[in-house]
Amino acid sequence: GDRPSDSAEFILVIGGLGYIGSHTVLELLREGHNVLIIDNLSNSYESVMHNIQILTASHCKQKGVPVPLLHFHRLDYRSRSMRLLLESYSNLVMTINAAGQQTMTYRSRIVGVIHFAAHKSVVESITTPLQYYQNNVCGLVSLLQTLDQYGIYNFIFSSSATVYGAKANQGLPLREEDLVHHPESYIDKSGHSVVLQPSVTGLSSPYARTKYFAEAILADVAAANPAWRIVALRYFNPVGCDPSGLLGESPRGEATNLYPVLTQVLMGARPRLNVFGSDWATRDGTAIRDFIHVLDVARGHISALAWNDRAKRHDNSFRAFNLGSGNGATVLEAVQSLEAVAGREIPLSWTGRRPGDVGSCVASTERARTELGWSPRENLVQCAADLWNFVRKAGLDSTGKV
Ligand code: NAD
Ligand code: WQD
């Protein structure tokens, strides 16, 4: 091409040192993309960078391919310096050839954005909703304005199966068009379910609403300017980790999700798992979830970036896709899969339902399969095996804080 030899195209990954972000960055690098990470480390650690580098180096050495570029800037994506940063990665340079012809080319360029940065605790969002709306919604709006100014339009957003709300309880695979619009309940500070009629979205937590509103904003933005190519990926329950055990889920705060809690139990940092509810209408009474390997989720982002690049072949400048396995497993089956790889029993304590929980939540994978050409490769057994590697690795150098 006509680019100077030092030109480079980057995928900007915001929140790229977190659980799903770090695995996606790793997959991007393995596929040969250059990556620019922005993360303020509010829920992650800089050491993740180092582990990504180790894994990328060994992959590239094994394949005999050059190591792509990986840049990291510790930054709140809402800060003013985002503009300066985008500016410095959108360098237009003028070159004049021997015949005196001038051409403008990019020295470097951001060709796609994956936006993971958000607060993600359902419980915390009930007590500090403004903090959640600020980071997950206001931040997104400003980001989109900034990207628009720099002409960066290929955008992938982290949404969640939580946008389906109580629709999940119908027990059918959730299709992308199945959103609820009827009034439902809110959870108050003390964890009680309060019916407020009419509720705007029919969803039960501020966190869920941040994702719902974000999708609505993205759809409006795309409708107003079809230059945008926007995909919202609705993750079901991402679990597991890279088989190396070098990357994993290491939240800074208290673990509340099933697998991080199970990880702590396996590491001896918690005595047992409290099972929330044994009276759901399922095969063993515990709730059903659609667990999906985090590397499958990661690959979904690369499929989505490519789908956006094929823009001319479809009309949708905004589209939502489920990333789930399509298979439901109960909480008890998840526990058993880990017991099998760990070779020991996980102590359980049977407690009541957690407020706001649904009994079943499983994806329809049809749209992602047919349109993105994405399908999951791993299963629950692999998730358990990979997580066990992480537990053993982390156990060597920690006190049980994962
Ligand atoms: P995570 O907390 O591990 O990763 C988020 C990363 O973003 C962290 O590294 C954090 O430090 C960073 N971050 C947060 N706010 C920031 C800001 N203002 N500026 C810069 N960096 C910031 O979470 P995750 O599990 O990897 O989730 C990623 C995304 O996927 C989130 O948007 C989350 O809501 C969504 N999601 C997660 C799940 C899940 O089960 N993990 C399910 C559905 C959706
Ligand atoms: C799974 C199952 C619990 C912990 C939430 C969000 C969703 C997404 C993922 C971010 C449930 C049970 C859990 C424990 C238990 N997050 N459980 N004991 O609730 O499906 O989804 O996290 O976007 O948006 O809503 O995930 O891992 O918390 O729970 O029995 O200590 O495990 O009741 O049935 P959930 P989870």
TrEMBL record:
<dbReference type="GO" id="GO:0005996">
    <property type="term" value="P:monosaccharide metabolic process"/>
</dbReference>
<dbReference type="InterPro" id="IPR001509">
    <property type="entry name" value="Epimerase_deHydtase"/>
</dbReference>
<dbReference type="Pfam" id="PF01370">
    <property type="entry name" value="Epimerase"/>
</dbReference>
<feature type="domain" description="NAD-dependent epimerase/dehydratase">
    <location>
        <begin position="11"/>
        <end position="313"/>
    </location>
</feature>
<dbReference type="GO" id="GO:0005829">
    <property type="term" value="C:cytosol"/>
</dbReference>
<dbReference type="GO" id="GO:0003978">
    <property type="term" value="F:UDP-glucose 4-epimerase activity"/>
</dbReference>
<protein>
    <recommendedName>
        <fullName>NAD-dependent epimerase/dehydratase domain-containing protein</fullName>
    </recommendedName>
</protein>
<dbReference type="InterPro" id="IPR036291">
    <property type="entry name" value="NAD(P)-bd_dom_sf"/>
</dbReference>
